[in-house]
Write a structure and sequence with these properties.
Elements lengths: L5 H4 L3 E6 L30 E6 L24 H10 L3 E2 L13 E2 L7 E6 L11 H17 L4 E4 L1 E7 L8 H11 L3 E5 L19 E6 L2 E10 L4 E5 L7 E8 L4 E3 L16 H5 L1 E3 L7 E4 L7 H6 L4 E5 L6 E4 L4 E4 L1 H12 L7 E4 L3 E5 L8 E4 L3 E4 L11 E5 L1 H18 L5 H9 L10 H4 L6 H4 L4 E2 L4 H9 L5 H6 L19 E5 L4 E10 L5 E10 L1 E5 L2 E5 L5 E6 L2 E4 L5 E10 L9 E10 L7 E10 H5 L10 E8 L12
Parallel strand pairs: 1-5, 1-6, 2-5, 6-8, 8-9, 9-21, 12-15, 15-16, 16-18, 25-34
Antiparallel strand pairs: 3-4, 7-35, 10-11, 10-19, 10-20, 12-19, 13-14, 17-23, 22-23, 24-26, 26-32, 27-31, 27-33, 28-29, 30-32, 33-34
Helix pairs in contact: 2-8, 3-4
């Protein structure tokens, strides 16, 4: 209800720590934004883009394949530009968007189109990290320190920080240490959580309570391209952007589309299994594939550009559902799931040449109800239309569609900057509490995969109550973790004083690994930031869970031997900033050592009003010790991760767990 001028809205600054940005892209048009004057920022344009800095120049091994990229602060690979456009891109009209069925509006914009952007480049294109990990960690930390000194509002980091070791420290990680320093200066840090599935052990990135961990969900919609095989089988394709139908064409396998150098018919290629790595390099695309639809699996991905150059009618490519994906517009490249890929292969194998054909339909935009993926918070991150590298020869190449946690992280960064516009004095704890307790929940999501839920920006603006944590309380929490003391000392922090255990840190969620019949108590404090005079009543909502056992869907009720209560369960507030303390008590009447138990409940503080009362929701998750031990043997409790110089956050060998 509060109105703020454009001048006030445009004071918010988001730092994009990524691969740089393309400042000339049309989505960064800034005529609607007032000129910003600053004494501490390097402001080249004074409007939308307020800082461009390069932390990679001269800091890379000579072996790096993309060495030239490190000499420029601009973006050459497109990832940083995409993230910046999603977070704070200006309102832009794309008339050709109307070519896509079911899209009613041809205008796009970022999550907060009024926010300004500061780009701090810490990695480049096609770089292989060898022994320069420490240098890269320092570059990232230097960028975060500079952003904190610049007094920005939000720092967004979407990097591949996945390799773990078993050192029991959060602060050895540059994102966590940089986030700690930023938290003390009231700067919010958000980071992506990984692109490797929705299991509870696949989390990576910002595992500390002062960093916001973001995962993707598909609230909103997806671009769907229907494929029809000659036998009438319908297959739903994705990651494509077709503005018209492609009529029935001959369908062939990738192995029939190539030939060995020096042959005309490719007879030497008898099977994919017989094609060695050396032979692959000598394979050419056959000239007679023009006008045909080509199907292939992993091998085809590296040859897509060559196939398009010979004017194939379309390309069908199998893809993992959790692949980090991006695709350029108006290219007849359609990805299908592994399950549908098997159908296509069977159709090709069991049909004669004349019958083998397929048809590709115009892309349709389908609304989605939303499946949630991982904590702390989720945001739309699938099929996001965003800026691409600038190409003066092709207007369609200015944009791309991307799907991964980096996109979701950019959405959250924009929303966080907008919330900070209205609540300038709020720190990371209040903002994190506001977005986590006001989410859109999905009943069909696994509890350990969903975090609190999907971000709801309108409700997060006025959360009613928040779980607040001071910088001093974060410091005292770190005192309870021996591995952090060395790093606290390096930052000249006091390493003496009373400790706060994890269960007593004032977080907006409740998580417990339960191993015996006992009673566990969470101590929490709520701060009123809504109406001066209001009453809230607590309720515990117990959830069953649905899972598959031996191929069948099984529904399981909440365990009857676990009891959750709240004391006290009613609060009467009379002033803004008034604080009230309460306890959440979890009692188990039996030991759970030999059982596989996952219990999920929600604590809801409901404002006592006739209509439109505010609700403040927090997840309660209980695991048995045995279930915790059943995670893959190579998974360790999250301690330390090194920075890998790649886009996104895709775990390779060891993955992190957040509870």
């Amino acid at each position: 209800k509060e109105k703020i001028s454009v001048e006030e809205k445009s004071k918010s600054i988001i730092v994009i720590i990524d691969s740089g940005i393309n400042v000339n892209h049309e989505c960064f048009e800034d005529k609607h934004i007032p000129i910003l004057e600053s004494n501490h920022l390097n402001i080249p344009f004074k409007r939308k883009i307020v800082a461009i800095e390069n932390y990679t120049k001269g800091k890379v091994l000579t072996k790096a394949t993309g060495f030239v990229d490190f000499n420029f602060s601009e973006n050459l690979n497109g990832h940083g530009t995409a993230c910046a456009s999603i977070a704070a891109g200006a309102l832009t009209e794309l008339k050709w968007l109307k070519d896509i069925s079911r899209i009613s509006d041809s205008k796009i914009q970022g999550a907060n189109p009024f926010a300004r952007i500061a780009s701090y480049k810490v990695f480049g294109d096609g770089v292989t990290v060898d022994k320069s990990v420490e240098v890269l960690k320092n570059s990232l930390l230097d960028a975060m320190k500079k952003a904190t000194l610049d007094k920005v509002d939000v720092i967004m980091v979407s990097l591949n920080n996945d390799d773990l070791s078993n050192i029991s420290s959060y602060l050895c990680d540059p994102v966590n240490m940089g986030g700690y320093l930023a938290m003390k200066e009231n700067v919010v840090v958000c980071t992506s959580s990984g692109n490797h599935g929705d299991n509870y052990y696949t989390l990576s990135g910002g595992l500390t309570p002062w960093v916001i961990e973001v995962e993707l969900c598909n609230f909103g919609g997806r671009f769907i391209t229907q494929v029809e095989l000659g036998g009438g089988t319908q297959i739903k394709g994705f990651d494509s952007f077709m503005d018209k139908d492609v009529d029935y064409c001959e369908l062939i396998h990738w192995s029939d589309a190539i030939k060995a150098v020096g042959t005309s018919k490719g007879k030497e290629v008898e099977s994919k299994a017989e094609t060695s790595q050396l032979q692959k390099k000598k394979m050419e695309i056959r000239e007679d594939v023009k006008g045909k639809i080509i199907y292939g699996d992993g091998e085809i991905k590296g040859r897509i550009k060559e196939l398009l150059n010979v004017n194939v009618a379309g390309i069908l490519c199998s893809s993992q559902i959790y692949d980090s994906r991006s695709y350029e517009l108006h290219r007849p490249v359609i990805y299908v799931t592994k399950k549908d890929a098997i159908k296509i292969q069977k159709y090709i194998d069991n049909s004669n040449r004349r019958e083998k054909k397929a048809k590709i339909y115009q892309t349709v935009y389908e609304e989605q109800k939303g499946d949630l993926c991982k904590p702390d918070i989720c945001a739309p991150g699938e099929d996001i239309l965003c800026a691409n590298k600038y190409d003066a020869q092709n207007m369609y190449a200015h944009y791309q569609v991307m799907s991964d946690t980096s996109m979701a992280n950019a959405v959250v960064a924009g929303i966080l900057s907008y919330i900070k516009t209205f609540h300038k004095d709020w720190g990371i704890a209040r903002i994190k509490s506001a977005i986590m307790t006001s989410v859109i929940k999905s009943s069909n999501a696994a509890v350990l995969a969903m975090g609190s839920g999907c971000i709801n920006p309108l409700k997060a603006m006025n959360p009613g109550l928040v779980y607040d944590i001071s910088p001093e309380e974060y410091r005292r929490y770190l005192l309870s973790r021996e591995g952090e003391l060395e790093y606290l000392a390096l930052m000249e922090e006091n390493i003496e004083g009373e400790k706060i255990l994890g269960m007593d840190l004032n977080l907006p969620n409740f998580n417990l690994v339960l191993d015996k019949a006992s009673e566990y108590i969470f101590n929490r404090t709520l701060t009123n930031v809504g109406c001066p005079k209001c009453t809230y009543k607590a309720e515990i909502r117990l959830h069953g869970r649905t899972f598959r056992r031996f191929g069948e869907e099984v529904q399981e009720a909440f365990p009857g031997y676990i009891n959750i209560s709240v004391e006290p369960d009613v609060f009467n507030f009379s002033n803004i900033e008034e604080r009230k303390c309460f306890k959440v008590i979890v009692r188990s009447s039996m030991a759970l050592r030999d059982q596989l138990v996952l219990a999920h409940a929600t604590l809801i503080w409901r404002e006592q009003k006739e209509d439109n009362g505010i609700t403040v929701s927090s997840p309660v998750v209980i695991l048995s010790t045995n279930l915790w031990k059943k995670r893959p043997s190579n998974i360790r409790v999250p301690r330390k991760r090194k920075v890998k110089q790649e886009i996104g956050a895709t775990p390779k060998k060891e993955k992190q767990i957040k509870l």
